[in-house]
Amino acid sequence: MGAFFRPRPTAEISEGERRVSPLLQFVEDRLQIAALLFMASVYVIRVLWLFHFRAVRERAAAEGRASAGAGYSLSNIARPWAMESTRTRPLFYLQFVVFHLGVTAAIAATFIIPYAPQWLAPRGRVITFQALMAAAFVVAVFRLVRRLRRPVLQLVSTPDDYAAITLMMAYFILGILAVPNRPDRGEGPMIAFFILTAFFLVVVPFSKISHYLYYPFTRIILGRTLGRRGVLPVRRPRSRQTAEERGEEVGA
Amino acid sequence: MKTVKAAKSLSVENLPLDVATQDKARADALPSIQKDMLRTYDPAADNVRRFLDLLAERITRPVAASLAACVHCGLCVESCHYALTHPDDPTMTPVYKADQIRKIFKRRIDWTGRIFPWWVKAGTPRGDEDLNRLKNIVFGTCSACRRCTLNCPMGVDTAILIRFTRGLLTELGIVPEGVFNVSRDEWETGNQMAVTPLDFLETLQWMRDDLRADPKLAGLDIPVDLPGCDFMYTINPREIKFDPRSIAQAAKIFHLAGEKWTLPSAGWDQTNFGLFSGDDRLGGALARNLYEAAIRLRAGRIVISECGHGYRSTRWEGYNWAQYDQDLPSESVVRTLQRYLREKRIRVDKTKNDLPVTFHDSCNVARSGGMTEEPRDVLRRVCADFREMTPNRTENYCCTGGGGLLSMAEYRPLRMEAAAIKARQLEATGAKLVCTICHNCVDGLNDVIKHYKLDMRVVQVLELVENALVY
After folding, report:
1. Chain B (47-86) residues lying within 8 Å, Cβ to Cβ, of chain A
2. What CATH topology corresponds to B20-175?
3. Contacts of residue B320 in chain A, CB cutoff 8 Å?
4. Which of the listed residues B130, B398, B411, B444 has the most CB atoms within 10 Å of its CB?
5. Residue range A33-58: average pLDDT?
6. What are the boundaries of each domain within chain B?
7. Average pLDDT over residues B309-324
């Protein structure tokens, strides 16, 4: 670990990085790696924790395929038409997509800025990242207002729920300021962006933001159970034709 | 028809715990209580401690995952018939109901809630009053229809959380009186309506004699304990106790199809209140009775009469509860009928069923059992005017009588409020008959039809097939 915290040799630092302060260099690199390692460790423990609960062995003979059900269930996220709740609320689903694209852009930026800064050199890419995060910020505002206004969400929401969305809003703003990767114009937003990233990495395993860790498990468990029973994948009628229309002789 | 939106929610959270029949069962020293199979409420016990111990002891991976994964997005709200009919009452939503057990899980088992309970609104029941309130929520405001489960983006299975919580409370005797009574009858008699062996055999004889009055059915029998048959037929006690016509209809069809079948004298009840009470011990005992009866009779398969929760319990869950690896094929009688029709073992004339018919998918059969197309195939073959209701299949709304709610009279007013959405759905079909393959749904839909004064009647597949028979 001692070597881990030593500054990198100058020869390893890129042309662009030579201009960054030691503080920014630390928060965008070593702090991130330390936080990532912490998060990964906690996630491993979290998964082991989940697995220490007794699994349910299905003893009834299957009518469908558990793997097909699990695959269908897991990929539900990409099929808004599969569930009534998303099919009838396309705007809500669109918000979900936009929000998570913004999250993806912000997370990607934390790797690109320190390790592949040249990738963000074209102005179009910077603007694309900024646009994604700006759109995600707008969605986050909508979601926060929704959470504050809807009685049911007021009733069930916890400080963790409010903190998660509020911090994400701050993260998007800082991300928009950080992605141009111009420390020469002021390192403040970049340092704040990377410190918030590290904070997220440390805190996320204990907050609702870790829902993406559970997603595959809940989806696969449900999908396998209902897959065996033939509930998932949802069966659509093969044909709306009547038996006679299909050429079968029915009745007298 | 009344409006869909209920004027004011009838709160059930504070309904008291009624233990009169529990006291009587204890005074009568029922064998199931003596043997510690049927649990009763003990006000002197530390029930909160027992509840928390049971929670930690019984939690399974699917339950833990569903408890941990909710993000409070609220998408489940619009999938629940209670929530849809009570838009101004957030306590009717699936997320609120599930959160009542989730907050206890977070306080006792999850990480963050144990250290910073206020951060995730984690909490522990303070006493028996809180457990009673929890009872009223999980038994009284949810039919465990699983509609919210299939509409949750995270795959949170709220229905299994409800059943899990019910199971913990059942161990403490903190249950609605109706749940206790049915559980008592099942433990004591092996069937949920306390049908005696004499009642059972006499009813079968009566049906057989009625059928034999038809000269074309002179050789018909309703065999009991006949070994080596193609299948063992299992029924709902309601068929014996209240409406044995369905047994006669089945017997007639089996006879005309040339089937070799039998009923068992013991283990004939395919219903299983363990599904509703969350009591896996009861569920396992009843299911094992049935599975072992089929083995004893050397039956080729088990055929389950038209019952939603019976189908789910016998076909799917019972094997897990009983820790019994399935050793015989089992199927709904609807599949048996479909086979007869496809193989032309029976002849039908669909014009005999000329009234417009719609089909109500039972939650336990469609969302938890995977059988949606078979009944439709049969209905299209035996009905002249079959029409779908919207939504249908796995998206259908509950009849509102599911989850054992028919046995819990104290929650009926709220249930009938929540039924407004079902009434609107039924009425929109314009059908005169609503067909379902579940006895619970028959009673639930009858309640809806009567309450909302709809011009339709409930039928089952057996009745329509029997009515269309040509012989």
Report:
1. 59-66, 68-69, 71-72, 74-79, 83
2. Fumarate Reductase Iron-sulfur Protein; Chain B, domain 2 (1.10.1060)
3. 56-60
4. B398
5. 96
6. 20-175, 190-342, 350-468
7. 98
Q: What is the pTM of this model?
A: 0.94
Q: Residue A103 and residue B208: Cα distance in Å, rounded?
A: 69
Q: CB distance from B376 to chain A under 8 Å? A: yes
Q: How far apart are CA B161 and CA B262, in angstroms?
A: 38
If you ran DSSP here, which 8-state letter would residue B269 be given?
B
Q: Please give the Cα distance from B385 to B180 (Å, whole number).
A: 42
Q: Do B65 and A86 touch (CB under 8 A)?
A: no
What share of chain A in percent tops pLDDT 70?
86
Domain B190-342 has CATH 3.30.60: no
Q: Give the pLDDT of residue B381.
A: 97
- What is the rounded distance in angstroms from the CA atom of residue B178 to the CA atom of residue B406? 9
Is residue A240 domain-resident?
A: no
For chain B, the average pLDDT equals 96
Rounded Cα distance, B173 and B426, in Å: 37
Q: Does B101 touch chain A (CB under 8 A)?
A: no
Summarised one tens digit per residue, pLDDT across range B74-110 is 999 999 999 999 999 999 999 999 999 999 999 999 9
B41 close to A (CB below 8 A): no
Extract the tokens encoding B300.
Answer: 């080729």
Count A/B contacts: CB-CB distance under 8 Å: 186
- pLDDT tens-digit map of B423-452: 999 999 999 999 999 999 999 999 999 999
- Give the count of domains, chain A: 1
Select the residue of B83, B348, B368 nearest A252 (Cβ to Cβ).
B348
What number is the average pLDDT over the span B111-127? 96
- How do B231-234 and B386-387 pair as beta strands? unpaired
* B96:A51 CB<8 A: no
For residue range A165-195, list pLDDT tens digits in order. Answer: 999 999 999 999 999 999 988 899 999 999 9
State whether A250 and B348 contact (CB < 8 Å).
yes
- A116 assigned to some structural domain: yes
Task: Spell out the CATH class of B350-468.
Answer: alpha beta
Give the pLDDT mean for B253-261. Answer: 98
Rounded Cα distance between B290 and B313, Å, is 11
CB contact under 8 A, A211 and B154: yes
* B343 close contact with A: CB closer than 8 A: no
Do domains B20-175 and B190-342 share one topology? The answer is no
User: Is residue A63 a part of any domain in this protein?
Assistant: no
> Dihedrals φ, ψ of A116, to 5°?
-145, 55
> Is A173 part of any domain?
yes
**Domain assignment of residue A171, given as a range:** 20-54+86-228
